[in-house]
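Lab notebook, design round three. We kept the backbone fixed and only want residue identities now. Task for the bench partner: fill in a sequence for the structure below.
Input structure tokens:
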């Protein structure tokens, strides 16, 4: 039985992680989990999976969760009714306690945003393996986090479908045999829309991703292709290859999740349905592969596989991400922080779609070039980039 902690249990990745747990009785035990503000779902999950620690974002949320768990009506009928009540915690300390739970062997890092970074870092320091979904961990703090991964000798297993695919393909050769990594991108909902129409894009249109159902932030990041920029940054850290060896190609069907091209010209690709439960299961069971009834590619529906180069003018966020990675220091962290502020402003209709990249570019230009030696340095740069981004959003509204 593998014992797991989940950061972000109520989110898209968190819920699918619990689906995987559910589909393999006796294989996993959820020892701790952390949610944000979806208390209703946190109650359901607590009753069903009965971890020993549950944390939520706020004290008020923790009170609500505690009251519900004490109520006999919540527990009646649950298979877990006889098990002890979980300890209920809240805030960043609660998140840390979930990530560092003494019984957890592997931590699923799937909270959204930089909030999940310190807790994930602490888990790594304690020698826990990580199933990594949370982009901010490597985008904002790649250098610091990878140094800790090396020191602790833990396995950092990517959940994101592209990196998960590359992780699988790399089992087919030595790292010195790799010519380049090829990250596939769906191209999002605006792949075919002419640039002249980009200024009119609404949040509703940007939230309608053609292939994947995901949280709001990552869905908008897919529409701007900033998500692919983040993935390029993550790929450099995860697989130790330079930017010149990471290539992005648009593949609208999202059937090939990514590829590795070897020095002899041979290309290994990983294919699968667009279902995140497959990479989650791979990360949780690695190095084993376990049977699954849910994940099968429908070959009869697979008519063709298309590929296109990325039209750089339409998706400046991808270029900004590469530039931030090339310069390094606080810039990848600032890229992420400014993007989060800009995406939130776009969703609130305070910013136009095309202004997302403009705000980020401004922030990157203004960021003080400080050294990133610790998580504290990262969090400080993150705060500064957010401050600069908010000023830039406001300036545009006046
Ligand atoms: P969601 O928005 O669906 O879920 C985010 C999770 O984080 C929720 O459980 C939320 O809780 C929790 N959370 C938010 N704030 C806090 C807080 N202050 N304390 C504790 N928990 C908090 O996001 P996704 O699941 O889509 O994505 C999670 C991460 O994985 C992101 O970094 C994303 O980029 C990455 N990722 C996602 C993929 C996907 O297919 N969804 C694919 C690849 C990567 P609550 O809902 O209770 O407020
Ligand atoms: Mg992805």
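Proposed sequence:
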């Amino acid at each position: 039985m593998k014992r797991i902690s989940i950061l972000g249990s109520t989110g898209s990745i968190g819920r699918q992680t619990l689906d995987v747990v559910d589909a393999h009785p006796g294989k996993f035990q959820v020892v701790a989990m952390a949610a944000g503000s979806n208390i209703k779902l946190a109650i359901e999950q607590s009753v069903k999976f009965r971890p020993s620690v549950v944390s939520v974002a706020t004290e008020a949320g923790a009170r609500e969760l505690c009251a519900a768990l004490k109520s006999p009506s919540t527990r009646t009928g649950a298979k877990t009714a006889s098990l002890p009540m979980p300890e209920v915690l809240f805030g960043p300390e609660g998140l840390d306690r979930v990530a560092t739970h003494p019984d957890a062997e592997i931590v699923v890092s799937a909270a959204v945003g930089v909030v999940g970074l310190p807790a994930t870092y602490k888990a790594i320091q304690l020698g826990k393996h990580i199933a990594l979904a949370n982009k901010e961990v490597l985008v904002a703090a790649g250098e610091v986090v990878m140094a800790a991964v090396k020191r602790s000798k833990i396995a950092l297993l990517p959940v994101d479908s592209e990196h998960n695919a590359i992780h699988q393909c790399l089992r087919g050769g030595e790292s010195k045999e790799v010519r380049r990594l090829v990250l596939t991108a769906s191209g999002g909902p605006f792949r075919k829309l002419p640039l002249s129409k980009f200024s009119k894009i609404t949040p509703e249109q940007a939230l309608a991703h053609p292939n994947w159902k995901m949280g709001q932030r990552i869905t908008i990041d897919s529409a701007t292709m900033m998500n692919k920029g983040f993935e390029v940054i993550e790929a450099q850290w995860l697989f130790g290859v330079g930017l010149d060896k990471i290539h992005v190609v648009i593949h609208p069907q999202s059937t090939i999740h990514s590829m590795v091209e070897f020095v002899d010209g041979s290309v290994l690709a990983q294919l699968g349905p667009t279902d995140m439960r497959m990479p989650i299961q791979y990360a949780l069971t690695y190095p084993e592969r376990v049977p699954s009834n849910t994940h099968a590619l429908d070959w009869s529906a697979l008519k063709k596989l298309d590929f296109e180069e990325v039209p750089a003018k339409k998706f400046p966020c991808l270029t900004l991400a590469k530039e931030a990675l090339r310069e390094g220091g606080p810039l990848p962290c600032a890229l992420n922080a400014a993007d989060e502020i800009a995406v939130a402003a776009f969703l609130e209709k305070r910013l136009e779609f095309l202004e997302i990249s403009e705000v980020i570019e401004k922030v990157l230009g203004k960021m003080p070039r400080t050294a990133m030696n610790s998580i504290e340095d990262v969090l400080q740069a993150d705060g500064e980039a957010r401050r600069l981004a908010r000023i830039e959003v406001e300036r545009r509204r006046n």
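Keep this in mind before ordering anything: The pocket of NDP (ligand 1) is lined by residues 8-14, 34-38, 57, 95, 110-112, 115, 133-135, 160, 212, 214-215, 218, 276 (CB under 6 Å).
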